[in-house]
Amino acid sequence: MEAHWLDRFIGLMPRQPAVLDIGCGSGEPMSRYLVERGCAVTGIDSSPEMIALCKGALPCQSWRVADMRSLSLSVRFDGLLAWDSFFHLCPEDQRKMFPIFRDHASPRAALMFTSGPSHGVAIGEFEGEPLYHASLDVDEYRTLLDENGFAVVAHVVEDEACGRHTIWLAQFI
Fold it and tell me: What pTM did the predictor assign?
């Protein structure tokens, strides 16, 4: 269901781009889709278990255990992806992520992330455990993107064709 958005993301980058998957989880399906389309993926996740799954499934890519909130790789990427990961941070930590996105973005880099549909906090459930979600409001995301050099390319709230994800696609200018 994410293919349409991933294709738009890939379309903003040069051929054979370097992509940073922020909060990559197991690497499925997002990183795999990117790799199958010629992207070189560096994935970070705070879970050693998730990174181990990535290394097993996609061993030719770069996988690192890291906390996105303190990420400083000293490398710039053609694309930055934070799909179903970024919104698990509290609002203050989300605000602090935008300079991190900027610091890891090559000129004209694509940035794609998911958020909630509006400002607020929600507690969901995953495998019987509570799962925290937070979102800033639309205007604040737009301001943070702009202040950090990103122009919004597309934004859809609760995209029916993509599992009701709220998606942001931007480009570093």
Answer: 0.95
